[in-house]
Every structure is written in C-alpha cells, then in structure tokens.
Amino acid sequence: MSNIEYIETVRLDYRLGNITEKQAKEKLKNFIKEFNEKYGIPKRWRAEEGEAYFYIDVYNNIEESVDNCLTSD
C-alpha cells in the first residue's frame, strides 16, 4: 500500500465511523514515525567523550582523533 493509499484509507475509515478520532490520530502518528525512520534525515553519530573516531581529511587521508565534545571536533 502506498503512502497516499494509506492516508486515504485512514481518512475513509474516519469518515465512515470505522475508527475514532483518537484511533485515527494514533494511526497517523505511527505512519509518520515509520515514514521518518525509513526516509527521514539520518541520525548523526558521535563518539563518546574521550573516545577515538576516524575521519577523512582534506587530502583524503584517514585520520584518527579523540572526541573532546567540543564544536571543533
């Protein structure tokens, strides 16, 4: 079922009285959550404070650094 079909199904069920407003809201919230998990902005990963991480510098070298939880890290 496509995203549009899903939303239309929820709308139709609501209009026909098959689901309550609370149920429709919950279905829509779950749909949005699943959609964002699949297509949303990827979550950023960051090393814990004092832990090492790797990055590619401007010369395409792989470098290792320690995260000090500063904005410059």
- Estimated share of beta-strand residues: 5-15%
The first-to-last residue Cα distance is 43 Å
The number of helical runs is 2
Number of discrete domains: 2
| Poorly predicted residue ranges | none
| Spatial extent as radius of gyration | 22 Å
* Shape annotation: elongated
**How do the strands of the widest beta sheet line up side by side?**
1-2
Mean pLDDT: 79
Number of DSSP strand runs: 2
Report helical residue fraction. Answer: 40-55%
Q: Write the H/E string, N to C.
A: HHEE
Class by alpha and beta content: alpha+beta
The biggest sheet amounts to: 2 strands, antiparallel
Q: What does this entry show, briefly?
A:
This protein is of the alpha+beta class. The chain contains two helices and two strands, in the order H-H-E-E. It has helices at 3-15, 21-39; strands at 52-56, 62-66.
